[in-house]
Design goal:
The complex is a heterodimer of chains A (157) and B (178). By secondary structure, chain A is mainly alpha-helical. In chain A, 67% of the residues lie in helices and 0% in strands. By secondary structure, chain B is α/β, with parallel strands linked by helices. Chain B has helices at 4-22, 72-87, 101-110, 126-130, 158-174, and strands at residues 41-43, 51-53, 62-67, 92-97, 118-122, 138-142, 148-153. In chain B, 37% of the residues are buried. Classes of the chains: A mainly alpha (157), B alpha/beta (178). At the A-B interface, helix 3 and helix 4 of A face loops of B.
């Protein structure tokens, strides 16, 4: 059992070591460094599609990080780095795509769904409340109730 | 009626999920469709002294196929390209992406020949990057005006060729040269 556990731990250690094989890039300017690091986290790798450029170990991600590095280091803006990628690979590379007709459903979708679900829940709630309310008794029913009360009072006596 | 609503929602969700299953997440639409083809000015694979410059191909429809000797699915695609080259319908140019010259030439020899009129040697992948290459093999259709009209990501199959590429190529070849 102990041996098995030790083996498993070794496996885990190996896994983390190989995942952290990305190159280190340093800028002279800490501001540029911060911009670079923020950008590569927000850009998506096309090979491992659910990883950002920062996370991916794919060859292409490395090349794209190179390009972003070069653009930032040469003093150009974040927007220029993003444009470089979008003009070649499309909005797909953006984890936060621009709001435009093509992406509006993506942005408004969650709010729409929430409103829809909220509306349905409210209708259910309102219906249940009116159903639970007691209708007032008609005069005939009231008379019958009185009679019943009286007869049970007589029984008790 | 209200009891049918959850069922209705369920079916709508199922339809969307069903459509989602038929889509290939690896197919990312290229923003280059309809735009001028990026520059491709590279030494040729077969002869470093020669240069392939697609700017000189203006006025003809051609295919640009991105390939590499390290690319496993290129092997699967290669016979399709060889067959297409034999039919002489459209010139096929190659972009040899992040490869080594000797390996590329040996690969062509080993897998039955060279279907390319010429292949550009893109060792550092810079030209590939400009073309938005992300999954070799890829095939672009470029028209007479030098615009990219279609992109096929992944290995070309005879079916894709007959159904998508060849009809488009015929249409484009019928267009007047600029």
């Amino acid at each position: 059992m102990k041996r098995l556990l030790a083996g498993l731990l070794l496996l885990l250690a190996g896994g983390t070591a190989s995942a952290a094989a990305l190159e280190v890039r340093s800028f002279d300017d800490p501001d540029q460094q911060a911009r670079y690091e923020k950008l590569v986290k927000e850009l998506r790798c096309l090979v491992c599609q659910n990883q950002s450029l920062a996370d991916s170990d794919a060859d292409l991600a490395q090349d794209l990080r190179d390009e972003v590095f070069r653009i930032i280091q040469s003093g150009r803006s974040d927007a220029e780095a993003v444009d470089f990628l979008v003009s070649r690979y499309g909005d797909f590379v953006l984890y936060r795509p621009a709001v435009k007709p093509l992406t509006i459903l993506l942005w408004a979708g969650p709010a729409l769904l929430f409103a829809l679900a909220g509306g349905m829940a409210w209708r259910q709630y309102a219906k249940r409340r009116t159903a639970g309310e007691e209708a007032p008794l008609s005069p005939a029913e009231r008379a019958r109730l009185e009679r019943l009360k009286k007869s049970s009072a007589d029984d008790d006596a | 009626m209200t009891r049918a609503v959850p069922l209705l929602v369920f079916f709508v969700v199922m339809i969307f999920l069903g459509i989602g299953l038929t889509l290939d997440p690896r197919q990312v639409p290229s923003p280059l469709i309809g735009k001028p083809a990026p520059a491709l000015h590279l030494p040729e694979v077969a002869d470093a002294a020669k240069t392939l410059d697609i700017a000189q191909l203006r006025g003809q429809v051609f295919l640009l196929n991105v390939w590499a000797s390290w690319c496993a699915s290129c092997r699967q695609e290669h016979p399709v390209l060889l067959e297409l080259a034999k039919r002489n319908l459209v010139p096929i140019y190659g972009l040899n992406y992040k490869d080594e010259r000797a390996a590329a030439l040996a690969w062509l020899k080993f897998f039955g020949g060279d279907p390319y009129t010429a292949s550009g040697f893109d060792a550092d992948g810079k030209t590939g990057l400009d073309w938005g290459v992300y999954g070799v093999p890829e095939t672009f259709v470029v028209d007479k005006r030098g615009l990219i009209r279609h992109k096929h990501t992944g290995p070309l199959t005879p079916a894709a060729l007959e159904k998508d590429l060849l009809p488009l190529i015929r249409t484009l070849q019928a267009e007047a040269a600029p």
